[in-house]
Amino acid sequence: MKAKIFVTLKSGVLDPQGQAVAHALCRLGFDEVKDARIGKYIELELGDQGASEERLRAMCEKLLANTVIEQYRVETVE
Amino acid sequence: MKIVVVRFPGSNCDDDAFHVCSRVMGASAEFAWHKSVSLPTADALVIPGGFSYGDYLRAGAMAAHSPVMGAVKQFAERGGPVLAICNGFQIACEAGLLDGVLTRNAGLRFICRDVHLVVEGRPTPFTRAIPAGRILRMPVAHAEGRFVHPDVETLEREGRVVFRYCDVGGGETVAANPNGSTKNIAGICNRQGNVVGLMPHPERASESELGSADGGLLFESLKLWLQGSGERARSAT
User: Fold this and answer.
1) What ipTM was reported for this prediction?
2) Which domain holds residue A49?
3) pLDDT at B232 over 70
4) B68 vs B88: CA distance, rounded Å
5) pLDDT per position as a tens digit, B2-13
6) Burial class (CB in 10 A: 0-12, 13-18, 19+), B236
7) Interface contact B146, partner A, CB < 8 A
8) Which one of the listed residues B13, B21, B34, B86 is annotated catalytic?
9) Domain residue ranges of chain B, discontinuous segments joined by +
10) Does CATH place domain B2-236 in 1.10.3720.10?
11) Which of A20, A42, B211, B233 has the fewest CB atoms in 10 Å of its CB?
12) Domain total for chain A?
């Protein structure tokens, strides 16, 4: 079992990296890009039993995301 | 008077903090390694700057969960003075010793230069001897120093904003804010006032040979505070 965790900045939190990337894309001619937000993607190898939704959430709350400025989404795959 | 400097893999201002505590302040200083589950007997702690665990995941996130932090939290809960500098401030926020987050500088660049700070807020062990409104000059050196807090008004109301970036005349202007921190906040304290975190480096500006001795005022203040608390304890017995 695997868990895929996506950590992204909450809306309203300034993302200067994302802004820089959006500007760079526009400079490259991709002027349809209006904004970019940078996040993190974390893949966890869980073993055969997997992990409960509750435990995965606890992992995010305790370490993987800082919920003052970040939100997270968890997907599990066989 | 003993100050313990907590060391993590990647700390790089640990020796500077040790030097200021021992040679400038005249206290005895000792290091504690991040793997220790207990701390030596201490009157105060310093969580120094650096790049603990290579800033993996988020600055301070890994160090916040290292074995020594349980003892650091206990020390802080008992009211022991803790000074968290730069990466130490990031660690203290991640560990829940202080509120808020320090994230990527608004200008994206690593900033290494002198800044001015104005002292305000409730008296803390590290600012008690510094009059409110006093302007201090010391360097910053960080890429993730933009302070974000969900409820800055409460911090302000409780007198927990201890330092703000300002210009040389004390003006809290946008130009004087090096990293885009909310309301120019450079340093805060916890509810009890015994844990203080700041992004600038007082330990790098504690001797006039280094261009500024203003940072030494934080350590001088701690010394007076510890001497005072010793007297209080003696008079109570």
Assistant:
1) 0.87
2) 2-77
3) no
4) 13
5) 999 999 999 999
6) exposed
7) yes
8) B86
9) 2-236
10) no
11) B233
12) 1
